[in-house]
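This is your field. Pick holes in the following sequence-structure pair:
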Amino acid sequence: MSSRNYISRNAKRRRCPPVSGDEVPGHPEDYDSRRAPRLKAGRARIRNRMGLASPATGTDQVVGLGLVALSLIIFTYYTAWVILLPFIDSQHVIHKYFLPRAYAIAIPLAAGLLLLLFVGIFITYVMLKNQKDTKKAQ
C-alpha cells in the first residue's frame, strides 16, 4: 500500500481539512468543523495540564479591575499635572489640587528606585535560597 493512499483514506476518515492549506479538499459537505484542528485550544489545554493557567476567580477579577482603575486615575492625574497644568494661569483655583512641579520628577524617580531595589532584593533572595538548596543536595 502506498503512503499516498493511506494518507487520503486517513484524511477521509477524520473528515477535517489538512492543517497546511486554506482550501478544503473534496466536497464541502465532507468538512466537519467540530473535528477541525484547534491549535490555540490545544496550547491552552497543555498550559492547564502544566498548572500554568487557571481561570480567574471573582476576587481576581475584582482586584484586577481595581488595579486597572487605580492605574487609570494615576495616569490621568499625572498627565493633567505635567501636561495641562503649565498652560493654566498660576492664580487659578485648580492649582491647589496639585503638588509643586518639582515633585513631578521626584516622585516617579523615587518610585522607580524603590522598584529596582525590591527587584534586586528579590533576585538576591532567590539566588541565595537556591544556592543553599544545592549545597544541601550535595
